[in-house]
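Design job #97: recover the sequence.
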């Protein structure tokens, strides 16, 4: 039975640059996105964002602010995606999940590499427009 799943992500902006990682497994290998993953049973959205930051980039995030909520249909999957804007409270990003990502790097917000993973693209539009609920 197909049912929607919940994804959670964290966009981090520092000095006009966005932290992006290149995906190597899961949906859209080779595409760029930021910290994120699947919500686990019993986990809050914010706890998921913090866990994914530790697991994928080895960092602790704080000051999580809702950026957007999107309904995304990708291939044969339906995701309800919740994206936060967050700040790094400790650590510097590194590839903490080498089977999932090939690299982390900071890019000027107006010069991001592509293609961008759909949840990141939706969140970027929300960041630029202020629209929180979208179906881009």
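Job complete. Output follows.
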């Amino acid at each position: 039975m197909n049912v929607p799943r919940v994804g959670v992500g964290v966009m981090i902006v520092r000095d006009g640059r966005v932290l992006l990682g290149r995906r190597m497994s899961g949906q859209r290998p080779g595409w760029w996105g930021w910290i994120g993953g699947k919500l686990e049973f019993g986990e809050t959205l914010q706890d998921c964002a913090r866990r994914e930051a530790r697991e994928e980039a080895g960092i602790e995030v704080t000051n999580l602010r809702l950026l957007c909520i999107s309904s995304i249909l990708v291939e044969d999957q339906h995701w309800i995606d919740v994206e936060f804007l967050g700040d790094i409270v400790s650590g510097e990003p590194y590839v903490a999940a080498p089977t999932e990502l090939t690299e982390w790097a900071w890019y000027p917000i107006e010069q991001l590499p592509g293609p961008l993973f759909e949840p990141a693209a939706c969140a970027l539009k929300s960041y630029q427009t202020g629209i929180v609920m979208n179906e881009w």
